[in-house]
């Protein structure tokens, strides 16, 4: 964790350089916008992720475009209603929207990761999250799988 700031800065710079990538599953391009970058740093609005969590995500972020470009099938889909922050007329409101999360799991070299693509009300699909396929339980030192809510994972 000594090089956390270095990995985070490098990962943010790399993320900002990503261009939209064509995903064969959707037969359309997936964008990498500010919402995805914010989600890599925050669990939810104004709730920062642990440095260890951010570190693993930024260390693996270079895999996200490649995984989306190679994905012909999804491994999971969740459709739900969720309150989303919407900006209109110089103010931010919270509005109930239909949100769909698409899950792609891949093994590239030795890295197993899950990529989440988010879509709000049949709008544009965008990168939402990269989840290391497993983490470590600090107490038992055993592997734990991430399988919680895609909004926070």
Task: Give a brief outline of the structure.
With 153 residues, this protein is α+β, with helices and mostly antiparallel strands.
SSE diagram, text form:
Elements: H1 4-17, E1 21-23, E2 28-30, H2 34-41, E3 42-44, E4 47-48, H3 51-60, H4 63-70, E5 76-88, E6 91-108, E7 111-120, E8 125-132, E9 134-136, E10 143-145
Antiparallel strand pairs: 1-2, 3-4, 5-6, 6-7, 7-8, 9-10
Helix pairs in contact: 1-3
Strand adjacency order, main sheet: 5-6-7-8
Structural class: alpha+beta
Distance between the termini: 20 Å
Oligomer: single chain
Q: Count up the domains.
A: 1
How helix-rich are the residues, as a percent range? Answer: 25-40%
**What is the molecular shape?**
globular
Number-wise, the strands total: 10
| Major beta sheet summary | 4 strands, antiparallel
Mean pLDDT score, rounded?
87
What characteristics describe this protein?
two-stranded antiparallel ribbon, 4 helices, 26% helix
How would you describe the overall organization of this protein?
This protein has helices at residues 4-17, 34-41, 51-60, 63-70; strands spanning 21-23, 28-30, 42-44, 47-48, 76-88, 91-108, 111-120, 125-132, 134-136, 143-145. It has 153 residues and is an alpha+beta fold. The protein has a 4-stranded antiparallel beta sheet. A two-stranded antiparallel ribbon has the order 1-2. Strands 3-4 form a two-stranded antiparallel sheet. Strand 5 (76-88) and strand 6 form a beta hairpin. The model has no long low-confidence stretch (mean pLDDT 87).
């Amino acid at each position: 964790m000594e090089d956390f700031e270095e990995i985070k800065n490098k990962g943010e710079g790399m993320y900002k350089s990503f261009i939209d990538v064509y995903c064969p599953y959707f037969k359309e391009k997936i964008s990498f916008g500010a919402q995805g970058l914010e989600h890599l740093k925050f669990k939810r609005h104004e709730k920062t992720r642990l440095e260890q969590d951010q570190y693993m995500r930024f260390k693996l972020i270079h895999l996200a475009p490649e995984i989306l470009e190679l994905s012909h099938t999804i491994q999971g889909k969740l459709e739900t209603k969720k309150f989303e922050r919407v900006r209109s007329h110089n103010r931010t409101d919270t509005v109930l929207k239909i949100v769909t999360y698409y899950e792609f799991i891949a093994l590239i070299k030795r890295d197993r990761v899950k990529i989440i693509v988010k879509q709000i009300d049949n709008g544009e699909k965008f990168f939402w999250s990269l989840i290391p396929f497993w983490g470590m339980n600090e107490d038992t030192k055993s592997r734990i799988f991430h399988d919680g809510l895609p909004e926070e994972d």
